[in-house]
Each structure stands twice: as C-alpha cells, then as structure tokens.
UniProtKB/TrEMBL annotation:
Annotated GO CC locations: Fanconi anaemia nuclear complex
Protein name: FANCC protein
Domain of life, source organism: Eukaryota
Signal peptide feature range: none
Provenance organism: Molothrus ater
InterPro entries documented for this protein: FANCC
Length: 558
C-alpha cells in the first residue's frame, strides 16, 4: 500500500526546526549535529521532492506554507549541500516551486528568489565570499576551495544531464517523466551561468531536449542568453545544438542572421575568401540545410536588400551565402529534403538549372547552360500570370542569388562563340527587371549596340582610351541606373579579358567610375571574379594579376 505523504509523515516541522537550529553550521556542535543527520535529511528531501513534483508551485506552497523557509536555510548550509545528492535534490525541489508563467507580483518575487538560490548553488564566486564558513568542511575533504567547487559544478551538471537524457529515452513512462515546468526552471537557473565551460554539456542537452508538450518548454530568457553567448563566441556548442536553438527560437535565428550581416559589413572587403570564412563560421549556411531555417534567413536577406536599395555589398554577401549553403546541402550524405522544400514557389526546372555549380559542367557547356536559363526565365517573366511586382521581384531575387551564372554570362559574351541575344536578355533582366515604359527593352537595345562595338575591338592588341570613348560615353551618357550598371559590367569584362584591354584597364575603369557612381559595382564584380578564379584554378595569370592590381586601387577608393 502506498505511503500517505502528508505533512506529519514527512516530519516537516522537525526538519524546519533543525534547519533553524543549525543555521549555516558555524559552530563545532552544529557541524557535528548536521553530519549525524545528513543521511536522514537526504531521505526526507527525496520524499519531499517526490511529493511536490506533480503538484505544481501553487498547490505545493499551499500544502507546505513554510517550504521556502526550509529550502532557503538548507541551501546556505555548506555541510548539507556538500553531502551526496542533497544539493541536486534541493535544486529539484526549488525547480518544482518555480512558476513558468507567473500570474502576480508574489509569484514573480518567488521566481526571483528561486533563481538567486539556484545561482548560489552553482556559483563558486558567491561561495568563495563565505570561505571562512565553509573552509572546515572543504579542508576535511582534502580539497582546495577552487577544486571543491569545480568538482561540485561538474558533478551537478553530470547529474542533470543524466536525468534529462534518461527522461528523453524513457519519455513514455509518464510517472517518471520530468514535467515541462521543471525543465523550464532548469533552463532559467542556467541563464546567469551560461558562460561556465563546465555547463556546456547541460546547455547542449537542454537544447536537444524535446518533451511531449507542443509548446516550447525552455524559457525564452535561456534561449536568448545562449544565442547571445554563442554569437559573441563566449561559448562553443556542437552544430546540432546550435541548429536546434535556431529551429525552436525564431528571434535567435533572426538575431544571428542580422549579426552576420553586421559582422561582414564591419570587415575590410578585400576578398570574398574572407567573407566566405566569416559566413561559414557563423554556421548559418550549414543550419540552412533545414528548409525552415533557409527560408527564414532568405527572407531576412531579401528585406536587407530592399532596405539598402539593392546595394552591391549585400547582394554579394547573399550570393556567397547561397554558394556555401549549396555546398553544405550537397555534402549531406543523406539529403533529407528535396530542392522544392527550399524554393517551394518557384519553377523547379529553373531552380535545378540555377543550383548547378558552374564547376560541375565543362566550360564548353557554360554558354549552352546560360542560354537554357535565359530561355526558361524569359518564358516565365513574359507569362501573363506574372503580373504583380511582388512576383517579379521573387523571380529576380531567385536569379540574383546565383550570381556566378550572371557573371559567367557576361564573360561568355566576350570569351566564347555564343548567341548573344539570350545572354544579353538575361543580363538586361537582372539589371532592369521591370519593363515599365519599355525600360528593359530599351536596355536590351543599348546593350546590343555596346556589345557589337566591343566585339569589333576585342582582338585589337594596341588599344587606347580614345578607342573606347564611344563605349565610355555610352555608359556615362545614360541616366537610367540599370543600363549604366550593365554597360559598366560589360566594359569591365572587356578590359579584363580582351587582348589589349589590360594595358588601359586601370585608366579606363578609373575614368568611368569617376564620372559615374559605379565604383562599388566594379569593385564587387572584381572580387567576385577573383573569388571564382581562385576556386576554379583559373590559369590566366595575367588576368588574375590585373584584377589584384585593380582591387588594390579600388580598396582606397570604395
């Protein structure tokens, strides 16, 4: 027959009287008395915990009105908390009294008091301030103060991790399962101790813990604190724990993405290798292998691009992120999700063509692939169903994320025998997606004229700035920004890849960017091209050397 766990059976008043009598065990007599009663006290605390663990904070306090006074006194007795599992049991009892959703000022104050006690139980700094009161006990164990508290924290963490993992594996055993309220309370008590290295296993276990509740059981304060510490590199966590954090707490994912943008903007954008390293270290591309994370990060990037009026720096960051995401996605041994999960509202054949990395194909096939992309895109854009600017922007953003194919398209116009119209249309769409008042059509006409002019000069080995004056005037004389950017793109590629362009590249590009406001566009084009060359092992050392020289010039100017 089950024992009736009422107040008299628990001898509650007896142990409260003892706790008052002992105080903090500062005298020899009280220390001896505490040591004599420690086994019985631990048994009492275990019975108390078993009694209140399913009651909830309100009912527990109603049944044991003086429970706070008892636990508070015992938590400050170094002999009690140093004995066997008493500290752990005290902590569990405190967690049972914590209100995950406080309804009034009394419950808020009680939560604050509980947090302070939990911090005290694991904070060596607070205990060390009372070293005179605990030195006798610690010395008797043969430890120094630092060693003692280090072992205490480690043992406490191991105990908690074991409890949580056993509960996770035994989740169907309702009687033994840990309540969501207690798990929430554990996460709360971790908040002020987040950066303790010994606490990392517990943080990982909590982040990977999923109870039976449909609601989030970890406190938002805990999730925010872990994310903040991780972003500031104050803690190191396994990738699985970080991914779980971002999946279960959207504000943390948003903050991590915005933090990445700030971080990249704060560094000197000398090379995309450095940008790629920073982005990869953030773990966001790897986390984006989960479609929910990818779509949210993509939306944040999209908003950042609109808020900055399509600045080239943001677009370059998005393109590098997309490349790293695809690497992580393709490196997964078991790809759990199809591409449609990441791009659910887009034309899937177009998506599959864009995600193909240029280096997966022979260079002789690039022109054909670019034409294929352009033909599909044109059919979609000119479809009468694509009527709203929102739809058009979504299509444009998809193409813009895969910037390698756009840069390759501009290069193929000059370096390979290609059919120019589909390639020029693709570039015209990128730089001028809207066709209001025939803007894109006019851009296409002017780009075609510029292309024809450049091709007549492509094989000339002795070029001067005067030879390119017509092209330069075409760039500087057009007011529409989209056409100005496209013609600057084509002209820069001509100077990089033509026979005679190298000699006048610095003079010509400097002249153009002085007159127009395209310095950032040219600079980002150069670092993108250099990045692709470095990854592909491009052997044209003359072009690589020229790009490096131009980048050095532009570093001071941009």
């Amino acid at each position: 027959m089950a024992q009736d766990t009422t107040v008299p059976k628990l001898n509650f008043e007896y142990w409260l009287d003892k706790a008052i009598e002992w105080g903090q065990a500062t005298t020899l007599e009280s220390q001896k008395d505490v040591c004599l009663h420690l086994p019985q006290l631990q048994e009492f605390l275990h019975q108390l915990y078993e009694t209140i663990k399913h009651l909830g904070p309100t009912v527990a306090i109603q049944q044991f009105p003086l429970i706070g006074q008892l636990l508070g006194r015992l938590c400050w007795n170094p002999f009690v908390i140093g004995y066997d599992e008493s500290q752990k049991t005290l902590m569990w009892c405190l967690c049972c009294l914590y209100s995950s959703e406080p309804q009034n000022a009394v419950e808020l104050k009680a939560n604050s008091w509980i947090r302070s006690l939990l911090c005290h139980l694991l904070s060596s700094s607070k205990w060390e301030s009372n070293e005179a009161e605990t030195s006798t006990f610690i010395s008797a164990l043969g430890y120094t103060s630092a060693d003692y508290y280090c072992h205490l924290v480690k043992n406490m963490v191991v105990s908690l991790v074991t409890e949580l993992r056993e509960n996770q594996y035994n989740g169907l055993n309702i009687q033994e399962s840990i309540s969501a309220t207690r798990v929430n309370a554990i996460s709360i008590f971790c908040v002020p101790l987040i950066t303790l290295p010994d606490l990392t296993p517990l943080l990982e276990t909590l982040l990977l813990y999923h109870g039976g509740s449909s609601k989030e059981i970890l406190s938002s304060e805990f999730l925010e604190a872990v994310n903040e510490a991780f972003l500031k590199k104050k803690i190191s966590l396994p990738e699985s724990a970080v991914f779980s954090l971002w999946l279960r707490h959207l504000p943390s994912l948003e903050k991590a993405t915005l933090h990445l943008l700030d971080q990249v903007f704060s560094i000197q954008l000398n090379s995309l290798e450095e940008v790629a390293r920073v982005i990869k270290d953030s773990l966001l591309p790897q986390a984006a292998s989960h479609p929910a994370i990818f779509r949210i990060v993509n939306e944040i990037f999209k908003n950042a691009l609109m808020e900055t009026d399509g600045t080239p720096e943001v677009m370059t960051i998005i393109q590098v992120f997309t490349q790293l995401f695809l690497q992580a996605y393709q490196n997964e041994n078991n790809q759990k999700f199809p591409l449609k999960a990441y791009f659910p509202y887009h034309h899937q054949p177009l998506v599959r063509s864009l995600v193909r990395h240029p280096f997966e194909l022979p260079t002789t096939y690039w022109s054909q692939h670019v034409k294929h992309i352009s033909d599909m895109l044109k059919a979609i854009v000119e479809d009468t169903n694509v009527s709203s600017l929102t739809d058009l922007f979504e299509i444009w953003f998809l193409v813009a994320c895969f910037g390698d194919w756009l840069d390759i398209a501009a290069e193929q116009l000059l370096k390979a025998a290609v059919e120019p119209d589909p390639v020029l249309w693709l570039l015209a769409f990128y730089y001028c997606p809207k066709n209001e008042n025939q803007q894109r059509t006019q851009t296409m006409v002017e780009a075609q004229a510029l292309y024809n002019h450049l091709m007549t000069l492509f094989s000339c080995r002795n070029l001067s700035l005067k030879d390119l004056e017509a092209a330069v005037h075409r760039v500087t004389g057009v007011e529409q920004c989209c056409n100005q950017q496209l013609t600057t793109h084509l002209l820069t590629n001509f100077l990089l890849f033509s026979s005679g362009g190298h000699k006048i590249a610095q003079e010509c590009i400097y002249h153009i960017t002085e007159i127009t406001d395209t310095s950032k566009e040219v600079y980002n084009l150069l670092i993108r091209t250099a990045y692709r060359f470095n990854r592909s092992g491009e052997e044209n050392q003359r072009t690589v050397k020229l790009m490096n020289e131009l980048l050095q010039k532009f570093t001071l100017k941009v």
